Every structure is written in structure tokens, then in C-alpha cells.
């Protein structure tokens, strides 16, 4: 067998699909980073010196949004501490890894989330 035929005989491996535990670990690491970023943003927002009127209005609008995100992030971290990261809060089934990649603070599967919004 020549080198060329031996080389072509080795099949190309398909692109590796990350396993669910790897995807969950990545999503959880992102969740923790987002939690720290939210804490920093809120503390900066609340501690900075006297602002101009437009700045005050912006802060007043931004603070509740950040607090809402922080609450959701903390809730998801609490579920993770209980060993329930990636498990739907509504039905107990697994949350799709893709969903957690897109939003690491998700605590419901897409079906339960859609149901909750109605
Ligand atoms: Zn569900």
C-alpha cells in the first residue's frame, strides 16, 4: 500500500458534536459570568455620583431591567446548586441544550415557557 492510498483510506471524522454535559457546563459558566456582570452593573448604577436629568431617567429605566435579569440569574444559579440546572421547572424534563446556550438563565423548556406566557 502506498502512502497515498493509505492516506485516502483514513476516513474523515465527522465534526464532533459537543455532549450535553459539556454544553451545560459552558452555559453554566456563562450564567455565572453574567451574574457577576449584573452585580457589577447594578452596583455601579446605584453608587455613581449625582447624575444629570437624562442620566437619572436612564438609570431609573435601566435599574428595574437589571434587577429582573439578576433575579432570573440568581434563581437559575439556585437551581444549579440544587443539581437541577437544565431541568425544566415546569415539567421536570430536560431543557434543550440549544436553549440553554442561547439563554443560560432558562429554567423552563420551550413548551412550558410558551404555556406560561399565555
Ligand atoms: Zn417543561
The tally of helices reads 5
Fraction of residues in helix:
55-70%
What is the CATH H-level superfamily? DksA, coiled-coil domain
* H/E topology pattern: HHHHH
- Ligand types: zinc ion
Give the second-level CATH assignment, the architecture. Answer: Up-down Bundle
Key terms:
mainly alpha, Four Helix Bundle (Hemerythrin (Met), subunit A), 0% strand, binds zinc ion, 66% helix, 118 residues
Summary of the model, kept short:
Helix content is 66%, strand content 0%. The protein is mainly alpha-helical.
Folded structure, characterized:
With 118 residues, the protein is mainly α. It has one domain: DksA, coiled-coil domain (Four Helix Bundle (Hemerythrin (Met), subunit A), Up-down Bundle), CATH 1.20.120.910. Helix content is 66%, strand content 0%. It is built from five helices and no strands. The protein is elongated, with a radius of gyration of 22 Å. Bound molecules: zinc ion. The site of zinc ion has 8 residues, from helix 5. Zinc ion (ZN) binds next to helix 5.
Secondary structure elements and pairings:
Elements: H1 3-9, H2 20-47, H3 53-81, H4 97-102, H5 110-117
Helix pairs in contact: 2-3
Bound molecules: zinc ion.
The site of zinc ion has 8 residues, from helix 5.
Amino acid at each position: 500500500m502506498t502512502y497515498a492510498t493509505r492516506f485516502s483510506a483514513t476516513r474523515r471524522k465527522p465534526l464532533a458534536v459537543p455532549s450535553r454535559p459539556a454544553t451545560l457546563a459552558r452555559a453554566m459558566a456563562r450564567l455565572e459570568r453574567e451574574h457577576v456582570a449584573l452585580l457589577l452593573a447594578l452596583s455601579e448604577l446605584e453608587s455613581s455620583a449625582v447624575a444629570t436629568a437624562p442620566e437619572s431617567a436612564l438609570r431609573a429605566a435601566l435599574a428595574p431591567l437589571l434587577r429582573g435579569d439578576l433575579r432570573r440569574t440568581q434563581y437559575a444559579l439556585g437551581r444549579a446548586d440544587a443539581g437541577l440546572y437544565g431541568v425544566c421547572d415546569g415539567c421536570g424534563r430536560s431543557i434543550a441544550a440549544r436553549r440553554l446556550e442561547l439563554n443560560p438563565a432558562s429554567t423552563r423548556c420551550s413548551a412550558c415557557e410558551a404555556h406560561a406566557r399565555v
